[in-house]
Specification:
Largest sheet: none
Helix content: over 70%
Number of helices: 16
Order of helices and strands: HHHHHHHHHHHHHHHH
Structural class: mainly alpha
Shape: globular
Distance between the termini: 46 Å
């Protein structure tokens, strides 16, 4: 088991250089912390992944907080959360300041042309490794995986109730309660604004009022508390509130916000900091980030002790197996959904395939591949 500082240092690195969105970030944690460094057992990783899928909020941030809690309880969860979120938050606010100062970043679209395709290669590889780790040769888990992959690809969304239903289904088949076991003869395997200088609360328009800052905090708290699935699942919810309801941004500005999230490392949901900055300056960015991540933190720290206490129970073990198989299926389906948006012509197809081949055959760090893909995107676009 590493020291807490070693774990925090790892998540500082992942938050600073971990490109690819939630699917890739989850895969990096599995590869680095379970397979290579063996800092966490497969069981602890699976338990954290299961809880992260059951609770609302961005998947990668939840899993990071879970692992921090496993290592050093509340102190570990708090430091890991800050280490993982802070680097991408600072980068996003920096890009937000440039965006407001220069009236938009045209190069961002060109870079994203290449980055988006390269990211697909990364997440496909990460999804494959996660599936192999999760399912093994269990046919029931492969069936759950296939159903969730098809549903996610078809609906282009992650349906929270299906994770619970999959867990219940595996529980009933592999480790039914005693009364049901006797009936069926089944087998038993069992997350307050204060007056500040105008420069800190000025976004694209006039300085934001305290009421607007309060709206930002409340809206993003709802986003963090009620949106299930990966960080990408929050995008439709944000669009409905930011563009359609409050009209803080227009369509182009919102798409630029999503692009910023994709070309910066760390959790994709950090796009909220960009949106918050455009609306309310530095304080708006901070309110948005606190609003999204604070519910996520509490949804891990509060239920985890109970979740861990009963993890050896055969019914709980079977339920966790079903949820993690469903999570792997949803991630595979998300790969298909993302690929349809990022790969739409021959250059992007070649970039995606080249990224997958390079990462499979050569030991080149993912950030280097992403930077190269972005540079190629600027040249081609």
């Amino acid at each position: 088991m590493p020291s807490l500082w070693e774990l925090v240092r790892y998540f500082l690195y992942l938050g600073s250089l971990g490109f690819g969105g939630p699917v890739a970030l989850v895969g990096y944690m599995q590869r680095d912390l379970v397979e290579q460094r063996q800092w966490f057992s497969k069981e602890d990783y699976m338990k954290g992944l299961a809880l992260s899928q059951l609770a609302p909020g961005p998947l990668a941030a939840q899993l990071a907080i879970c692992l921090g809690y496993v290592h050093s309880k509340v102190w570990g969860a708090t430091l890991v959360a800050l280490a993982f979120i802070l680097p991408s938050y600072l980068m996003t606010v920096g890009l937000s300041m440039l965006y407001v100062r220069y009236g938009g970043l045209a190069w961002m679209q060109a870079a994203f042309y290449g980055v988006g395709a390269g990211v697909i290669g990364i997440i496909v590889r990460a999804a494959y490794k996660l599936t192999r780790l999760t399912l093994g040769s269990d046919r029931l888990l492969w069936l759950v995986f296939a159903v969730m992959a098809l549903v996610t690809a078809w609906t282009e969304s992650e349906i929270a109730t299906l994770f619970i239903l999959c867990g219940v289904a595996v529980l009933l088949i592999e480790a039914p309660p005693g009364w049901l076991r006797g009936l069926l003869g089944a087998r038993t395997s069992l997350w307050a604004a204060i007056p500040l200088p105008a420069s800190l609360i000025s976004g694209m328009a006039a300085p934001a009022s305290l009421g607007t800052l309060g709206q930002i905090l409340w809206f993003f708290m709802k986003a963090g508390a009620f949106v299930f699935g990966s960080g990408l699942a929050i995008v439709p919810f944000l669009y409905g509130g930011v563009v359609q309801e409050y009209r803080w941004l227009n369509d182009k500005q919102f798409l630029d916000a999503v692009a910023v999230a994709m070309i910066t490392p760390g959790p994709v949901v950090i796009t909220v900091a960009f949106i918050g900055y455009l609306v309310g300056g530095q304080v708006g960015a901070l309110m948005a980030a606190i609003g999204v991540f604070l519910p996520v933190y509490f949804f891990v720290v509060i239920p985890y002790p109970w979740f861990d206490r009963f993890s050896a129970n055969p019914q709980v073990k079977a339920f966790v197996k079903g949820v993690t198989a469903a999570a792997a299926g949803a991630i595979a389906g998300a790969c298909f959904v993302l690929a349809r948006r990022a790969i739409f012509d021959l250059p992007t197809l070649l970039l995606g395939l080249a990224t997958l081949a390079i990462l499979t055959r050569l030991k080149i760090p993912e950030p280097v591949v992403i930077i190269a893909a972005g540079a190629l995107g600027i040249v081609i676009f």
